[in-house]
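[step 3/7] fold_predict: job queued, chain A
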Amino acid sequence: MNVDRQQSRRRRVPALAPDDRRSALIATTLPLLRTHGAAVTTRQIAEAAGVAEGTIFGVFPDKASLLSAALCRAFEPGPVLRALSAIDPRAPLRERLGDAAAILLRRVEGSVQLMMLARTMPCAAEESPMAVLTESRRRLTEAVAALVEPDRELLRRSPDTTARLLFALVVNTVRGDLPTEDLFTPDEIVAVLLDGLLKRPGDPSDPGEA
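[step 4/7] structure written:
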């Protein structure tokens, strides 16, 4: 009976073009990766996708390639860049950075487990998940730096350095690297960042910053 139900479910899955099938399998794999890590099987993926296991190997040469593609999808910066671009550039700097910190916290919280997996899993795909992750972080840092740029003159460090420090605080908060008694909400992250960076009366300019 179970076999009959599985076969019936698979028959109901519409035929897809290879690119569409690839995208659908990646979307199915991501939540399974979060649950099972690299131990997820192609059988589990096929059952979740409602397809025969052989369908996977019609679009991916092996399991490692599918997992790599799923990680690359998870690390794409597009949705986060769109969220950052929606922040009001006319808002006060502290408010802009608080919004950015909240967005980055959600991003890192949702992908930190996958980041750890990408570092330990051998890459068998043309596109390395770690390369996608590194490029994504670069683009997100640039987007945060652009949010800081209008208030460059208020800070003792460049917008780029400010953005990198914000990102570091967010990552360390999510990973639990900071003292456990400290609760780092987005506003507290910004307070730690800005209250140590705002110029004080009489501070000389830093010649090392662009």
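[step 5/7] annotate
Confidence is low (pLDDT under 50) at residues 7-11.
Residues 38 and 120 are 9 Å apart (CA to CA).
exit 0
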